[in-house]
Amino acid sequence: PRFVTAANGVPxxxxxxxxxxxxxxxxxxxxxxxxxxxxxxxxxFRSVASLxxxxxxxxxxxxxLHYYYIGMSVLVTTSDFEALAxxxxxxxxxDGVAHAEVFFDPQAHLVRGVSYKAILAGFKIAQAHAxxxxxxxxxxxxxxxxxxxxxxxxxTFNLSELQTSIRCGEVVGIGLDSSExxxxxxxxxxxxxxxxxLGIRRTAHAGEEGPPSYIRDALDTLEVGRIDxxxxxxxxxxxxxxxxxxKTLLTVCPWSNVFLKGAKxxxxxxxxxxxxxxxxxxxxxxxxxxFGNHYILDNYCAVQDAFGLSAQEWKSICEASIHGxxxxxxxxxxxx
Length: 336
Ligand code: HPA
Ligand code: ZN
Prior knowledge:
single chain; alpha/beta; globular; binds hypoxanthine; binds zinc ion
């Protein structure tokens, strides 16, 4: 199966935060070119090597997020966002990714005075390049930061540039990320209702560190079509059965869960449970530059090393991944 997936490529990635593809190498390069001061009181920022080392010692989601937000502070110009996304697409091409649905966190850039237009312009150049050079199709999903006041997310959602990007299809959906515990999905009901009225796709991180009730709330209150992570579903058999029956796709990120101490090893993840219960899931990288440089194929291989799946099981994972993608029907048919 390692050969099978590598030879056939990876049909789709649904859970990649573009800011999480910022390597320490690019981080230091952009800090220098943009004259961004990195924390002087944190020895992790002494060198590329010390930063890599620190990234291997995250204690939790919040410990990671601290570095994630400092890291992205070096992203300032359109060409920075372009370079970041091109770096990701080159890794994706190497892994044989056919289609990528990419999260971005506008609030974390707007707050530093970066314009929405500058962010999107960089991504669009990289997306065109990925298609021309590698044939990779891609979509953008705008995420809201749950640790900030909901009013901040609402104001961002209502920015005219953002609304325009939704209306013209440059952004196909919304997501919800950042610190999970203490920030239930229900807080974001208004935005999700507005997004539904606009007819765009909706997903939310739920059940990464948070309880299964957050997964239920995301389904019932936010009316999401997908759940990002969702591994805590394993703790609620009735909800598990429901998610399997309604075929909601979970975007599972194995190495992320291990790096953020949600699981001791990939073998602890409920992959076998999900397969046996008929839960649809895809395998994804989340923040590859922060999680041991494990891009999507490394995540596929880690699942194979831990669970020794059959070729038929891989086929079902790949098919679920394609059916759960937010590309158009003709593209799905090409991928199947
Ligand atoms: N969880 C929540 N927020 C995030 C993540 C994640 O795994 N990655 C980037 N932002
Ligand atoms: Zn994520």
